[in-house]
Protein: Precorrin-6A/cobalt-precorrin-6A reductase
Amino acid sequence: MSETTILILGGTAEAVKLASRLQAPHLRVISSLAGRTLAPAKIAGEIRVGGFGGPQGLADYLKAENVKLLIDATHPFATQISDNAIFASTTVNPIAFVRLERPAWLKKPGDKWIVVDTLAQAADAIPSKARVLLALGKQHIATFSKRNSVHFVVRMIDPPEAPLDLVDFELELSKPGTVESEASLLIAKRITHIVCRNSGGKASYAKITAARDLGIPVIMLERPRRPEIRTLPDVESVIGFVRETLNSLGT
Structure:
């Protein structure tokens, strides 16, 4: 029996779990990472790092590697690679395609959310003289550079490669922790507001709970609107989709 190649567009905890669960005889599982994190999680199977060179580059890769199943398990805000995946999956035939996207967080009693659609709206929503925990990827910092009356605490996992274009800031090099540790950070840094994206999942939700407990407003960036494609909410449902697809392929 020949191998069936599965490509996972990864970078999330769900993608790591999925790669591990799909390890089986006659399956070749490739996880593709953008390469933004210096020390990514240990991932089962093959790993490739870096971009594909746009939508056609991804389509060419799928053909070259004879990929039969493409799984988009990227971050909910990684719209470019997701758009590329939609294009590539419709260009290469036959190929099955599904997106794994964890559900968004829902506002709970006690949450003080200021919901915005864009980074510019988030920057505008910050009041003067605020002390803000900026919990965004490093590629989203520039929008806040004109806010010279705000002190930013910029959380990152890895140090930035270039100086940040912010007037008043300090770096917080750490990963999200427990509710208790997040609350301690918010208190120690005298945070008055949090700016973050509605990423969903458990990994970074502790700061939302801590903010609720402390009465701190959260400027919440809503998820971008996506095309209507087959989307599943968790690893288990994607495993079921993979099984159905493999059965249809006769593997």
Summary: DSSP finds seven helices and twelve strands in the chain.
